[in-house]
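Deliverable D2.4 — example input (structure tokens):
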């Protein structure tokens, strides 16, 4: 584990260099992603989030968004997932069946 002084900047010694934060690289190569039980309110930012963490979001075949707080579905959010075969949406707050019809193009 890192020394305690690196975890708390106020405890950093005078001799220790300042550590610059770098953006996380896209290191995950995945075909399955579990995002269940997170209180996610919207799928609108999904393409941006996936492109930030996955090397190839288009390779995703299985996405679990169950047990979140989704009330609507943005069909554009799923267009970046041409390989998607399984989408779990159960136990969300989608009250209108017409929301599910937005997924017909998938």
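Example output (designed residues):
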């Amino acid at each position: 584990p890192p020394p305690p002084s690196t975890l708390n900047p106020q405890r950093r010694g005078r001799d220790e260099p300042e550590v610059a934060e770098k953006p996380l690289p896209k290191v995950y190569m995945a075909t399955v992603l579990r995002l269940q039980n997170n209180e996610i309110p919207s799928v609108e930012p999904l393409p941006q989030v996936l492109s930030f963490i996955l090397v190839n979001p288009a390779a995703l075949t299985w996405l679990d968004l169950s047990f979140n707080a989704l009330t609507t579905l943005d069909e554009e959010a799923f267009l970046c997932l041409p390989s998607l075969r399984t989408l779990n949406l159960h136990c969300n707050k989608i009250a209108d069946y017409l929301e599910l019809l937005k997924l017909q193009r998938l």
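The two ends are 45 Å apart (CA to CA).
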